[in-house]
Amino acid sequence: MLRVSRGPRAGSYAFQMPKRLRTVGLLLFFAVEAGAQNAVIRAGVVIDGKGGVLRDREITIVNGRIARITSPTGKQTIDLRGLTVMPGWIDTHIHPTWYFNRENRLEQGPGRESKSTPQQAALYSAANLYATLMGGFTTVQSIGASLDGELRDQIAKGALAGPRLLTSLAQINENTGDPAALRETVDRLKGEGADLIKLFATASIRDGGKMTMSAEQIQATCGEAKKVGLRAIVHAHSSEGARAAVEAGCTSIEHGTFLDDATLQLMASRGVYFDPNFLVLHNYLDNKAKFLGIGNFTDEGFGYMEKALPLIADVLRRARAAHVKVVLGTDAVAGAHGRNAEEFIYRVNDGGDKPMDALMSGTSVAAESIGLSGKIGVVAEGMDADLVAVDGNPLEDITAVRRVAFVMKGGKVYRADLPTR
């Protein structure tokens, strides 16, 4: 029987592998055990991802899926009593190809200004995804870089250990072209295997967040995405840019720093998802020296980001009041990978979210937003066996999300902190 310890200390993301896996050590980074595992998990407390709490249950895993949830029978092979079990978390907005290089400076993957080789960039990116999985996130959405496609496919076939990955493969902005060129770009990305489309309707917060794409460009991009069966998620700080995107049929608004109540109400009426982000701003401010002087990472830009923090807290509260569907995305960049769960904490402590609402944003609501609600995001019979367990109860103390002790994806155990006895 695999018994899980009380977990690492708060803030620690180190992990201890089960004894049968320790012999392969860091090779787990490159190769995952073949085939899903069958298991019976004994859980004392289960937060099911859709607002419910189950107590003293056995979760039977067969061929990587949850086959049964029952009262205890004494057949458990994995004992998670003393921990809180939840669906594997979902981060709807990350950038795994962003990393700090050997000089401790930002790089955004291979390119003309990169000081890393393409091979190094790939390894940094894979390490970021591995850290994210170890932090309890079993599914992520990257928006997006071309390297994501290969990372996604290697993870899917078990050659790399990482979360399930969806990607836009690229980003569209006002310089991509006129409406005809934008529609061609969407078609090309669809053909290359993109899972969604990402567009910039406004400038970065570091440049003031004003609308940059025209309404016609936004309409062409979102309209073509819908035509070819892709979701379109939109970087938009201003109400003007967000409103144009909602009216064009886009499916999610990212950031939304300056959204007014009328735009939030429009989003709610159209069923558009909203992803405000706290972690990315804190991460930039905490790591300022590693970003400063690169692109628009200027002192003025950092000033804008610092001023944005209370605005994000305010817009989250107003979005909840308007009944907007809020999802959990971190916009994780260099320095934030593996710390994605801090977003839960910021949303509760700074944004006023109820712990259950925050957790649902990163489970069932996030799964719905990415089109996987019948597969992940809920602990229920028939769902994929994506599970995370933490030391403590995040409904009582949201910081418990830092203390990840167990991670399972598709029935495979990727993290299990064992007792020292």
Detailed description of the structure:
The chain is an alpha/beta fold. The protein has 13 helices and 19 strands. The strands form four sheets. Strands 1, 2, 3, 4, 5, 6, 17, 18 and 19 form a nine-stranded mixed β-sheet that branches. α5 (215-227) packs parallel to α6 (239-247) and α6 packs parallel to α7 (261-270). The chain is globular and about 65 Å long.
Number of strands: 19
Structural classification: alpha/beta
Helix content: 25-40%
Tell me the overall shape.
globular
Q: Tell me, rounded to a whole number, the average pLDDT.
A: 91
Radius of gyration: 21 Å
* Poorly predicted spans: 4-35
Strand content: 15-25%
Count of helices? 13
Question: Main β-sheet: number of strands, strand sense, barrel status?
Answer: 9 strands, mixed
Cα separation of the termini: 14 Å
